Amino acid sequence: MKDRNASSFFGNNGWIVFLLALAAFLPSVLGGYVQDDRPAVLENRLVTGPLDMKGIWTLNFWGENLSGGKGSYRPLGAILLRCLYALGHGRAWVFHGANVVLYALSCVAVYGLLKSVFPSQRAAFFAALIFSVQAVHSEAVSSVVGVLETAACLLLVWGLLFHLRGTRRSSWLAVLLYAAGLLTKETAVGFPLFAFLIDRFKGERRSLWKPYLPYGVVFGLWVLLRLSLSPSLIGSPSGPLGNPLLGQGVQARAATALFLNLKALGLTLLPTRLLADYSVAELDAVWHLADPKALFGLMVLLLIAVLWRRCLRRAPGVSLGIAWWVLGFFPMSNLAALLPVLLAERLLLIPSIGVAAALGWAAAAVESRSWRGGILPYRLVLGAYLVLLGFFSVSRSSAWKDDFSLWQSDVSMGSKSYKAWGNLGTAYLQKNEPALGARYLEYAITVAPARADLRAQYAAALSLTHRVPEAQKEFRRAYADAPENEEVVCLYAGFLAMAGDRGSALQVLNAFLSRHPDDRRARELRDRIH
Hints:
Blueprint: H1 12-25, H2 37-42, H3 45-48, H4 53-58, H5 75-88, H6 92-117, H7 121-132, H8 138-142, H9 147-165, H10 168-184, H11 191-202, H12 213-229, H13 250-269, H14 292-314, H15 316-329, H16 352-368, H17 376-399, H18 403-412, H19 418-430, H20 434-447, H21 452-464, H22 468-481, H23 486-498, H24 502-515, H25 520-529
């Protein structure tokens, strides 16, 4: 299954992959700041404030102290965002444009990597085409903060290309790129395993430890640096609403990991229902291995293992793709360490290279063995699949243009996530439609009654629909639950001021500012009430 006429890395095929990736996600360039983009960029002092190199290297990604074990350590990621913010003076399209270009370059790099590994250049080209239009990448490519995902992916694949060259200089470049990837986004952590996997696939007779020792040193130094600043390696779950596996045992983690693998594979292969949030009610943990979800996930995993074994000699590229997926998804499975959320589509960017590789190899193998009826039917099937994925990619990236479009799209697809309903309710409030806002926010606080900020938003919507007694009751409960929450305090004080009780409003704000004297929003609201 070897092609004689292979394109160069940036030859015609490389440009096709690059342009296809651009076309699939070009609508996202017109988007604004959505979901986590505001706290990650606009409200992040490491990005928008005075240059603080010490803070970039000692604080978490959000500009907060790491000693509490919360937040992620991404100093190069913060520097990248700061450079893009300065370049575009805060304009969102600069971030989106850079993200789409980095993604397209990542797709070309994946093509170059697979071309260096696969004996069939056609298989590498098919795999790169599939990877470039996978709709599950929409969150990573269409959000501003997703630029860290695409940058880490590009650094990882680029590093593997240098690793394959095998020279002393290229090996050190691979080490540097691995370190850069880790400091950009921790999703690059699997680099040494991918390097080992590719070497075994190519039959390289390298030592089992010597070529990978520098990568182990980089990983060890990263762990030591991270632990010197925080007691945990990754961001801790904020609570059961963020990750319901918090405080659970091994059985729950294993059962959930089996189900998450099944869910993630489905999202990657046939992305008919992509969502921006998989919080409680939309996706919950699986508590027992005897649960049908866990059993079905185990059955699929066993089938994957059988397929991997049978393809080792007959279709080694499929086996490589399967192994890549398993190694890439394991850190995202919550089995070894809990993530802030159970599942996030942006985390599937690197693992999905394995799915694309397996499908690309299979497509090329089927085509090469087809002699009856020619190759046209098989290319039509591949073309139809690419068009389908491209349609989902364009449609989904278009939904990421603003908060209202995103959350309306999620809710219209039947999302049960309290975040989706709560954020859509807040978006309706901003559109001056409080009745609809109250409807969606009411569902959100039913699912997540502990979220005082959502309850305060619901109370604000009630007050705007002239349901003042109900609004007052909800405001009091929200304030009693979270007197330190800026959103709750400011909304409650604003409600009291509009109701004519300026004294109580100032009392609430002064109490909050006595504990948080630097809070600008509360201070400005107090000045206006005065």
